[in-house]
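Hi there, hope your week has been kind to you so far. Would you mind checking whether the tokens look sensible for this chain? I owe you a coffee for this, so here goes:
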Amino acid sequence: MSIVLDKENKIIPVFNDEIIKEYTEVLSRPRFKISKSRIGKVINDLKSVGLFVNRAKSNEYFPDPKDVVFYEVTMESKKRNESFLVTGNLKHFPKKPFVVTPSKMIEIIESKK
């Protein structure tokens, strides 16, 4: 997930249309058993509190092409905000200080208090 830390260290999700489509597709998988109305509410809530950002083109290699959009949206967001790409799968992304695990993100937030 791409996020911004605001001045009060609150997490603001960052997205674009491709990310919204990916989240909708994943949440719609039968194994999650989430109703369409619930998915719609989650997506609308995300859009209402999040930050829409276009992609910045990257020449980095990604084993999974679906991961590129998250990296590129984070790169664009970094131009104006303190932004991070939070993932449990670091091996799918370039080694950069803004690509962090969830536990590292918590450490970063805690260190700012």
Observations:
- The chain has one domain: 2-111.
